Amino acid sequence: MDYNHNEIEKKWQNYWDENETFKSNTGDKKDPYYILVEFPYPSGSGLHVGHVRSYTAQDALARMKRMQGYNVLYPMGWDAFGAPAEQYAIKNHIHPKDAVKENIKTFKGQMKNLGFSFDWSREFSTTDPDYYKWTQWQFLQFYKHNMAYKDTIPVNWCPTCKSVLSNEDAAGGVCERCGTTVVQKEKSQWMLRMSDYAEDLLTGLDDTNFADRVKLGQINWIGKSTGVELDVNIVDGGKFSIFTTCIETVYGITFFVIAPDGKLIKELMPRIKNKEEVNKYIEETAKKSNMDRTELNKGKTGCKLEGVMAINPINGKEVPIFLGDFVLGDYGTGCVMAVPSHDQRDYEYAQEHNLEMLQVIDGRDTNTCAFEKQDYLNKGCKLINSEEFTGMTVENAKEAITTKLENEGIARRVNNYKMRDWVFSRQRFWGEPIPMVYCEKCGWQPLKEEDLPLLLPDVAEYEPTENGESPLANIENWVNTTCPHCGGKAKRETDTMPNWAGSSWYFLRFMDPHNDKEFASMDAMKYWNRVDWYNGGMEHTARHLLYARFWVQFLYNIGLVPKKEMIWTRVSHGMVLGSNNEKMSKSKGNVINPDDIIDEYGADTLRLYEMFMGDYTGDAPWSTDSLKGCKRFIDKVIRLKDKIIDGNNYSKDLESIINKTIKKVQNDLTTMAYNTAVSALMILANNYDDKDNITKEDYHLLLTLLNPIAPHITEELNEELGYSPICTSTWPIYDESKTIDSTLKIPVQINGKVKAVIDISLNTDEQTIKELAKKEVSNFLKDKTIIKEIYVKNKIYNIVVK
Questions:
Q1: Nearest-angstrom CA–CA distance, 500 and 192
Q2: How much is the pTM?
């Protein structure tokens, strides 16, 4: 046939639209199956080939599941709030809502050109007032349940974006959006008590089927550690607490270190003799991000607090207190004990500042480096220089010391978590307005629910302010309002929500997108049950996915969703790299525009290639040669039509390979092994090509199996055979008995080298196999003595001779 991919693809895309082929119905009697791919931020540059990879993969699964009889929900929408849209709009001198509207139009057109089977009847954007009304409503529930609060804290500040960033958005010490080095700044922020959910977020992972690396990413970010919180007195009054997982080393404390941005240093300042030096150190620390101060911190900077000493609570010994920038004021107690002989960071710090070291665990000399817990735990090591605990094993001493300090009322067994509360304020225009009002008389007051949504003002000027306040602060007629409680003069909150807010619950809205009475009905959520399969970027493991789980767990606890975990399986895909194995970027000139590929090769070729390019979970470089190879495969499938003869059954000699391929493709599409699914289809096509003729049913089977990945050309060829559309048909069922070979090929080795291959029936006994094998290699056994025979059933037979 004359294959005009542009005409064929447009024809079937129109058919799917006109017939609402992929529309899902809540309450349908079919079993529901909810497939979700992270909805994109609609950038000005349009869809890229990385999007194509993940969307095609989930589309293939959705198409197969529909044919298997499921009521598939595969929706698409737009995550359109946030800094990128605002920056794009500022650069192009347009309003963000206009920029978003145009970008969505581009994205949606590209998606339709690729034939993705999204249910467009459920489409929405996080920037739609009908949507963010419910984001605001849910924030009010956080507030009413004491889960949202305002606090002045040190925050990550991006000088370029002029906005606060969460710890997740400032990972690596740079702004996630623009790459600028992040600095610390104190600001009054809205916070969500996410740290209250740390343990629930950990245990909740047991109720999910997340990929192991996704679970590990969340576990690491939550950062649970079990230890002891110990009270420490300060000479001449005052005290603080430290947390340690190594209470067995408490006798080895030779100094304490406190945070330059914590509360304790402010309390101690009147007693400090070297105030000028201390204040200078505090100022220097404020210029660094949390990442610079901890994970990237290779220095040993510090400042001793002259005139202030602490008391080691276990033995009453007075030790100095230092400031150290590696201690964070908002993490744990903001104070740490230092045991140089048994912690390498403390060891290097003590060396730099010429501080005492005292070894309290025997087993190795500590003159050149610390003897740390990973070296001494469970090794039978014993305590030294530890009063009555000297001679005890580390494990016994850990328990005994803890018990003693507990009995004295100065220690508690606690769990500590690295994850902190969610900084929920952003000093941006383009975000959901936080529905709170400040009244001098009544304090912070929530908007009345009936007054939602609180809309953004329609203004021309919205660029970030130089003083770090939100652009909304300059719009007086929007800021000035009345108090919902007393009716007096009041001012609106001018910060907006982070772009993560709308994406923390969007998967719930897809279950019931047109509901104007609630964010989603309980009946709809119970019908769809949860997201069965959720694909997204690995980079969102510690941000979006963690926020979404926290958000859902809160809604569950107040009775608004049916499950504590509303996402079952979470998988992540690798990036599509440039042909030079580097990340695609305009500056490197290695960006591939999917529109260009579709124009030249067709959407089916692009879809097929992106599924074939390699392990889906790993990064893969672009290869135009491989792309062309996929185009040749599609051409082969088209040519095979010329071999068809009448026949409604599979060809007898093809039954085995056909049943194996059905099983292989079905299993591969459900386990992300897309590349091997394509390979199996190519092998099947080669088997067809080796024959003079194939039956109509042989060919129809190939088209059906290929359809989830290359839907346009397979529908066209299928129609020419006289069949109803594949998208309305059923998935083929394989015969398990025909997937098992009745004969096997067994390699025969002499001293580890293959000398022959024998064919045997599946149930041939071992002795017969050995006799057949020896006959086959008899020439190699002449004048040789058999030393040993190794037979691995149905795998290999090796004869060792000399």
A1: 13
A2: 0.86
